[in-house]
Design a protein that fits this description.
With 341 residues, the protein is an alpha/beta fold. The protein is 43% helix and 17% strand. The chain has 12 helices and 13 strands. Bound molecules: uridine-5'-diphosphate-4-deoxy-4-fluoro-alpha-D-galactose. Residues 92, 94, 132-134, 158, 186, 205-207, 210, 222-225, 236, 238, 277, 300, 303-304 line the site of uridine-5'-diphosphate-4-deoxy-4-fluoro-alpha-D-galactose.
């Protein structure tokens, strides 16, 4: 009975051709969902749709549109009789958000309001939202649980995630909706086929794309930002999670919506294990059998010293836990980079 219900669901994925979105489309199709993708291609390209098709061999509808265009979004939802939405479409560059805060508030907040508007119009009850561990701010508590207080964010990007969760809490109060907010830790890696992965625009800000571009000779040298932190090797600690594990968490979350009672639920999505930046660099070298050109530099402004997730809620309530380790993360990231360069 339940399996049939899941098979018949049509899930709209906003930002479905992006890094996490594309991996989630693959996993949704593998789980038997019908998928409809909308994406404005601001941070990806249409070829990703073909690559997803090559992996899954299952067609899906794709509409090039901006989620902030509520009328266009409504038309797509009406056309496909959508049962649930996974909302990824948003800007995500922390540094850029500091320089262009209005751009981030306009896009990320309006996009979510547009999605909520459509949920109301078409009586869509299920929503999964992309949030971030950035909502915990400069925390000293790790492993961190979902009930830690939300504090002031370090960047406008982070503030859009905090406001987003607040919008959802208010919306859930007055509607019969089931909403899940997933707070991602540090997504890395790529699909094992190397057909989809992260497409960083310009110079990457994030660690793993910077590592792979350095190994590929696109960047001269990786600089590790700070080695005087109060951690075992002096470098920052993060909870790196394989993007395929993260994608599977979205499938669990949308399935959970179908059976949960009305309201908003928040989950940490990480591995539950912290790794230092230096450990990641060493793992990359070890598992890909190469040497990376790197040195140590000053601390980067705004970096949290160490943070990793307590994932027990995701495990007990969603029935999800990560399966892939640093080896798969580093190998898949490198395989993806090699076919890009
Ligand atoms: N780092 C380097 N050198 C680099 C790039 C990064 O040493 O060239 C270090 C950073 O200092 C940090 C770690 O690698 O210690 C991870 O940095 P990332 O930029 O990859 O990731 P962040 O942890 O800073 O940011 C991530 C997400 C954000 C989210 C944030 C929440 O990318 O979307 O976590 O803490 F907001």
């Amino acid at each position: 009975m339940r399996a049939t219900a899941i098979l018949m669901s049509t899930i709209l994925v906003t930002g479905g051709l992006g890094y996490i979105g594309s991996h989630t489309v693959v996993e949704l199709q593998a789980a038997g969902h019908h998928v409809v993708v909308v994406d404005n291609l601001s941070n990806t390209n249409a070829e990703v749709a073909d690559r997803i098709n090559t992996i899954t061999n299952t067609p899906f509808a794709f509409h090039k549109l901006d989620v902030c265009d509520t009328e266009a979004l409504a038309q797509v939802i009406q056309q496909h009789e959508v049962d649930g939405i996974i909302h990824f479409a948003a800007y995500k560059a922390v540094g850029e958000s500091v320089e262009q805060p209005i751009k981030y508030y306009q896009n990320n907040i309006n996009g979510l309001i547009s999605v909520q508007d459509c949920m109301k119009r078409f009586d869509i009850k299920n929503l999964v939202f992309s949030s971030s561990c950035t909502v915990y701010g400069d925390t000293k508590e790790s492993p961190i649980t979902e009930d830690q207080p939300i504090v002031q964010a370090i960047s406008p990007y982070g503030t859009t995630k905090i406001i987003g969760e607040q919008l959802l809490a208010d919306f859930a109060q007055v509607t019969d909706t089931r909403i899940v907010s997933l707070r991602y830790f540090n997504p890395v890696g790529a699909h094992k086929t190397a057909l989809i992965g992260e497409l960083p625009l310009g110079v990457p800000n994030n660690l793993v794309p910077y590592i792979t571009q350095t190994a590929a000779g696109i960047r001269k040298k990786l600089t590790i930002f700070g080695r005087d932190y109060n951690t075992p090797d002096g470098t920052n600690i993060r909870d790196f999670i394989h993007v395929v594990d993260l994608a599977k968490a979205h499938v669990k979350a949308i399935d959970f919506c179908e059976t949960n009672t009305f309201g908003l639920e928040v989950f940490n999505i990480g591995t539950g294990v912290g790794h230092s930046v230096l450990e990641v660099v060493n793992a990359f070298e070890l598992h890909n059998k190469l040497q990376l050109n790197y040195d140590f530099g000053d601390r980067r402004a705004g970096d949290v010293e160490q943070i990793w997730a307590d994932t027990s809620k995701a495990k007990s309530v969603l029935g999800w836990e990560s399966e892939l380790g640093l080896e798969e993360m580093m190998q898949s990231a490198w395989n993806w980079q090699k076919q890009l360069s």
